[in-house]
Each structure stands twice: as structure tokens, then as C-alpha cells.
Design a protein that fits this description.
The protein is α+β, with helices and mostly antiparallel strands. It has helices at 64-75, 97-112, 119-127, 135-138, 174-180, 190-193, 198-204, 210-216, 218-229, and strands at 2-18, 24-43, 48-53, 81-87, 142-145, 150-153, 162-168, 234-237, 244-248, 260-265. The protein folds into two domains: 2-153, Ribosomal Protein S5, domain 2 (2-Layer Sandwich), CATH 3.30.230.10; 162-265, GHMP kinase, C-terminal domain (Alpha-Beta Plaits), CATH 3.30.70. The protein is built from nine helices and ten strands. Residues 254-266 have low confidence and may be disordered.
């Protein structure tokens, strides 16, 4: 059984002060995009895990796909399976690939093992794997608050735009970004700004991580600048980076003067 695990982008990201539990309060709009990892499970005598494509620099036991399997196995009589993960979403890019893999693994096992778990139950399990994992259960544009685990549906339709996604060969540590972010006070909420004409987003829709990420990696700032030169209506890093995306009114193709992949989603 195969499932395709998609990435996400952040439209704006506000970082509040660190809380007593170690997390920061945040406000962000999460939006799924059409860049996918491929996840497959097949019956087996013993559970195994094989990853190909972009390789994550972590132990197999720390992979969120394995953790998702082990989480459900605590409560249900899951069959032994061989797990195959083909990674296309860059690691450390702010595109939520690992969180997406975890959530889609829960959904895949739910169908494979006939667990009959509801969407709400899947969200509860996903939350135990990571603060933004449960976003990928419903996989629709949402306002995320709290530590990234409190969701409010929003109306957002970007079908008339083209998304150019630039993924430099840089991995940004989310922990390092949070440890160094400068918390800002924002007068306007993201739900207000997202209803502005998209031509105004450039001036109001901000990601608080950008100051630190651009300081650490000026080449990422250069990519954002280049997207605006090429005609983007709005451009930003996703999450804590390193991926940078731009929204365009029309398709754009070019030979880009940087060492990164360019994905064109229509």
C-alpha cells in the first residue's frame, strides 16, 4: 500500500516568548503544497525500514515514520511490515517533510490494518509525534497557534497563482533558529493580513525567523531578493528555512544563478 506525503509552506510566522514548557507560542498559516515523499508498506515476517532519495542524518529509531508505527503498535495489534520511504522533500528546509511522513504513516496504517480510527483520533496520535504533525491529517490551510498545535480552519485559495519553490543545499536547525529568534510584537494578526490583497502581503506578511536565518545564511536572503526581482507577488522562507518560495501571477521559467532546485507548481 502506497501513500504520497506532501510538504507545506508557512504564510507568515510570528514567534512569541518561550513558555514554561520550553515551547514558544507561535502564529502561522500552514498551507499544503504539491511536493511529495513516497511512503509504502507491505506485509513482512519482520518489520524493517528502508529509506532512499534524500537521506536524513538521524538514527532509524529516531525517524518519525518508525515512531508513528511504534506509537500505534502500543495500542493495536499491528502486523509486521516492511516500510519504504522515498524522500523528495529536503531535510531541514522548513517544509515539514518529517512531520508529514509521520502523519501519513498513521493514516496508512489505519487503512492497512483496518483500525477504523477517526480523523480526530488520528490527530491525537499525530500530536504525540510532533506539534505540527496533526496539521497533515486534515491537510488543509489552517491557522496554527499555541506551540503549533491549535488549529483554526481558514478560507484560502491560491489556485490562481504559481508557486516557485527554491530549495538550497542548506539545512537550517529548527532548534538553533528558535534559540536565536528575536521575538516581535505584531499589531496585525495573520488572519487579518491574509485577507488583504496579495499585492500587500509583501509589506505585512512576515516570518520572524528570517532575520536570524538571513544573518546565518546570506545566500538564502539573496534567493528571496531574486524571486522579487523575477516578479514574485510575495516571497518568504518556509518555517525556519532553508526553502524559499515565491507566488507568481504567471508561470516563470529561468536559469537560476544559484545552486538550488527550483520546483514549479501549477
Amino acid at each position: 500500500m502506497i501513500i504520497f506525503s506532501n510538504a507545506k509552506i508557512n504564510l507568515g510566522l510570528y514567534i512569541g516568548e518561550r513558555r514554561a514548557d520550553g515551547y514558544h507560542d507561535i502564529e502561522t498559516i500552514l498551507c499544503p503544497i504539491d511536493l511529495y515523499d513516497i511512503l509504502e508498506i507491505v506485509p513482512a515476517a519482520k518489520t524493517t525500514f528502508t529509506q532512499s532519495g534524500i537521506l536524513a542524518n538521524c538514527e532509524i529509531s529516531d525517524n518519525l515514520v518508525i515512531k508513528a508505527y511504534q506509537l500505534l503498535k502500543r495500542y493495536y495489534n499491528l502486523p509486521e511490515v516492511s516500510i519504504f520511504l522515498r524522500k523528495n522533500i529536503p531535510v531541514g528546509s522548513g517544509l515539514g517533510g518529517g512531520s508529514s511522513n509521520a502523519a501519513f504513516m498513521l493514516c496508512l496504517l489505519n487503512k492497512f490494518a483496518d483500525l477504523h480510527l477517526s480523523v480526530e483520533q488520528l490527530e491525537i496520535y499525530a500530536q504525540q509525534l510532533g506539534s505540527d504533525c496533526s496539521f497533515f491529517i486534515r491537510n488543509k490551510p489552517l491557522l496554527a497557534e499555541g506551540s503549533g498545535n491549535i488549529f483554526t480552519p481558514i478560507k484560502l485559495d491560491l489556485n490562481e497563482y504559481y508557486l516557485i519553490l527554491c530549495t538550497p543545499n542548506i539545512s537550517v536547525s529548527t532548534k538553533e533558529a528558535y534559540d536565536n529568534v528575536s521575538c516581535q510584537f505584531h499589531v496585525k494578526s495573520l488572519t487579518d493580513i491574509i485577507n488583504y490583497p496579495t499585492s500587500m502581503w509583501k509589506n505585512f506578511l512576515v516570518n520572524d525567523f528570517e532575520e536570524f536565518v538571513f544573518f546565518l545564511h546570506p545566500e538564502i536572503q539573496k534567493i528571496k531578493h531574486e524571486l522579487y526581482i523575477k516578479g514574485a507577488i510575495y516571497a518568504s522562507i518556509s518555517g525556519s528555512g532553508s526553502a524559499v518560495f515565491g507566488l507568481f501571477k504567471k508561470p516563470y521559467c529561468s536559469i537560476w544563478p544559484f545552486n538550488f532546485s527550483v520546483h514549479d507548481f501549477i
